């Protein structure tokens, strides 16, 4: 088993007044040559946007983009004609493909929106851009790992990549065994709240931990926890 640990306090940080952002991997003005990506996982940004503010219209291409709200409401508008709002409990995916313009704003003027912005390298370039979102049921991840993204379109949403995402809301004392889908994949564990031990590593709030070259690993919960697991190919 190989591992890499990214403690929450070692992340890159950018404060723009209206935006407070923590970068697990190199992004914008934060560059760390040892933290550019984890396999196909390229960006993991932990963003807080002030009321009524947001990201103006900007382009993307050849990237799979996932947004997961943690609090508040995030409004999305794009050049494909999509206009929608995602709240805590929702998840959004966008394939930028041949090119797309979009904007993201805090829907509310009187409260912050907190969300994860995740980019994954695609396994196909030049695809037709697309957008999708869905509302998740919290009870479906209570003391289990809820599959929210998969390449087989069986459960949740999908990406142009052999990637599986899971969310878990796990009570203290709970344990889970995660079995990797492919021996060429790795899993990036990101703790949203609480404390767990993944393998032999204790992880707290906003800690990240990459695991690969193993068939499975254990998660043991020492405090009530919310956790995100992202299984991605290690070779891109």
From TrEMBL:
Where the record annotates domain Pirin N-terminal, the positions are 12-120
Q: Which domain of life is it from?
A: Bacteria
Entry-linked SUPFAM superfamilies: RmlC-like cupins
Q: Where is the Quercetin 2,3-dioxygenase C-terminal cupin domain?
A: 153-232
Pfam families associated with the record = Pirin, Pirin_C_2
Q: Which InterPro entries match?
A: Pirin, Pirin_N_dom, Quercetinase_C, RmlC-like_jellyroll, RmlC_Cupin_sf
Q: Which CDD domains match?
A: cupin_Yhhw_N
Q: Family per UniProt?
A: Belongs to the pirin family.
Indicate what this protein is called per its UniProt record: Pirin family protein
Origin species, per record, is: Zhouia spongiae
Native organism taxonomy: Bacteria, Pseudomonadati, Bacteroidota, Flavobacteriia, Flavobacteriales
């Amino acid at each position: 088993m190989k591992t890499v640990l990214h403690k929450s306090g070692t992340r890159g940080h950018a404060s723009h007044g209206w935006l407070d952002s923590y970068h697990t991997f190199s992004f914008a003005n934060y560059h760390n040559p040892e933290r550019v990506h984890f396999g196909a996982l390229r960006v993991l940004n932990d963003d807080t946007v002030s009321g009524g503010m947001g990201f103006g219209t900007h382009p993307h291409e050849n990237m799979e983009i996932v947004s997961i709200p943690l609090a508040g409401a995030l409004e999305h508008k794009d050049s494909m004609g999509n206009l929608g709002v995602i709240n805590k409990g929702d998840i959004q995916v966008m394939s930028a493909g041949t090119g797309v313009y979009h904007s993201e704003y805090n829907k509310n003027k009187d409260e912050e929106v907190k969300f994860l912005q995740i980019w994954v390298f695609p396994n196909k370039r030049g695809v037709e851009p697309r957008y999708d979102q869905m509302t998740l049921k919290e009870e479906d991840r209570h003391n289990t790992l809820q599959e929210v993204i998969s390449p087989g379109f069986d459960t949740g949403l999908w990406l142009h990549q052999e990637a599986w995402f899971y969310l878990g809301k796990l009570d203290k004392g709970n344990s889970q065994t995660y079995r990797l889908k492919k021996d060429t994949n790795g899993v990036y564990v990101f703790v949203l709240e609480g404390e767990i031990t993944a393998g032999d590593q204790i992880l707290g709030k906003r800690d990240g931990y990459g695991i690969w070259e193993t068939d499975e690993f254990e998660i043991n919960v020492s405090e009530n926890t919310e956790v995100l697991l992202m299984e991605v190919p290690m070779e891109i």
